Amino acid sequence: MGIPCHFALFELQPSFRLDLEQLGARYRELARGVHPDRFADASEREQRLALEQSARLNEAYQTLKSPPQRARYLLAMGGRELPLEVTVHDPEFLLQQMALREELEDLQDSADLAGVATFKRRLKTAQDELNESFAACWDDAAQREQAERLMRRMQFLDKLTYEVRQLEERLDD
To answer: Rounded CA gap, 12 and 124, in Å?
Structure first.
């Protein structure tokens, strides 16, 4: 396999549906074993190896705990070459995204914190629905293109969620 198996690192079977608490507990357990402080008195080579293992562990954890990144990773494991640049050839979804962005701008302009909270809940529901749709089709080779479409939508909503969090922080100040 061309890419390192993040799932094997955590002793998990490749799957979109993960127990995030179990993943977090296993991550903390593994992180303690490669923490740089444990290698303070070790040779330079051992320190470097621990640092590399720690970086690999962190990358694997960040990838697996994020549904859009986990979806992209699973598709890549299946041999799909996925460009990092996200393009969605889905006019209906693009129109929906434009409407959501306009709504977010209006919430920002009006400094409507309650409206932002409602928007955030709607976004979370949409993300949960996308996650379920992806989980239902990702490992069916006949639905690979649909899985890719869903993954791209997940990435858009993830970016929008990040922007909502930033707006909340600005409005809270």
So the answer is: 26
